[in-house]
Amino acid sequence: NGIQLQDLVQLGKIGSGNSGTVIKALHVPDSRVIAKKTIPVENKTLVKSQLIRELSIMQNVKPHQNIVGFYGAFYTASTTNEIVILMEYMDCGSLDKILSTYKRYLSRGELEFRDPWFNELVLSKISFAVLNGLSYLYGHYKIIHRDIKPSNVLISSKGFVKICDFGVSKKLINSIADTFVGTSTYMSPERIQGSVYTTKGDVWSLGLMIIELVTGEFPLGGHKDTPEGILDLLQRIVNEPPPRLPYNPEFSKEMVDFVNRCCVKDERERSSLQELMCHGFIERYKSQGEREFRHWCKRIKRRIKEDKMLKREEKERAKLVSR
Ligand code: ADP
Ligand code: MG
């Protein structure tokens, strides 16, 4: 049942983030494609064995339709100093990848792609999936995700939306200290100020994520990747009014209200997971649009493939020009 590292054949790189690198791999014995994440860690046996123990908590999380399947965690021989996490491969990738694919289509001037890819049906289905996954993790295991952002929400062409990389391991999070790297942060004001962290912190992040999917931009403005730049962004999150969706008469009242209830700076006044799960924006599409959403996921898969080809052609052309 457990997957052995020696049974894997590397297929290609998927992406890399602040904490490590993710590749696609084939598990030869059952010809299953999986995702393999490698995280470099400090070479201290104690730290590593603690990390592994914490990661094994993930092993105890029973499969759920909104949580990326977990197939095991290892740390490789003392020469490499890395932790390997094996998980379900999601063939449409993460929301940040889908968003940047969409933006490339727009910049190529493809008229067909003027319509938003993330329409309200899609946003409602994604929001429900995230809320449902979060409330499963907390309800059954008292696990708080702590890192909801577009790159940790994954889509499959079968129509599944799943969250990954939940912060089971505070140690792991600390050892890679990745929260401050990168040009955006989805951290809530109370977390920045060091208060107790609850699932409502993830609700804040979900609100920011929806705004980003609608507008195409991280709502709080970026920052320079310097200590000053990061401090400035953190200060803006704490001191400035919360982000909002831009005004657009085509947005439903429900969606605007949903986002407004997520992006509340005072954690006590922010809606809870349970409240949001019965919000009108979720209810409206709960018992319908299933087929349409599956079609959307299939279409996304085709667009991603197409985009890869176009990118390759553009590169080739650039090479020819430069000659
Ligand atoms: P981050 O989430 O900070 O971007 P990660 O190392 O967690 O960094 O992931 C790198 C990229 O790999 C993600 O942006 C995502 O697009 C992709 N990815 C991660 N896990 C999977 C998976 N299980 N299936 C498909 N793609 C994945
Ligand atoms: Mg991730």
UniProtKB/TrEMBL annotation:
UniProt-recorded Gene Ontology molecular function terms? ATP binding; MAP kinase kinase activity; protein serine/threonine kinase activity
State what protein this is by name. Answer: mitogen-activated protein kinase kinase
> Protein kinase domain location, by residue?
8-282
> Which biological processes are named by the entry's GO terms?
pheromone response MAPK cascade
What's the top EC group for this one?
A: transferase
Q: Which family does it belong to?
A: Belongs to the protein kinase superfamily. STE Ser/Thr protein kinase family. MAP kinase kinase subfamily.
Q: What is its EC number?
A: 2.7.12.2
Q: Which residues bind ATP?
A: 37
Q: Which reaction does it catalyse?
A: L-seryl-[protein] + ATP = O-phospho-L-seryl-[protein] + ADP + H(+); L-tyrosyl-[protein] + ATP = O-phospho-L-tyrosyl-[protein] + ADP + H(+); L-threonyl-[protein] + ATP = O-phospho-L-threonyl-[protein] + ADP + H(+)
Which UniProt keywords are listed? ATP-binding, Kinase, Nucleotide-binding, Phosphoprotein, Serine/threonine-protein kinase, Transferase
Write down any Gene Ontology CC term.
cell tip
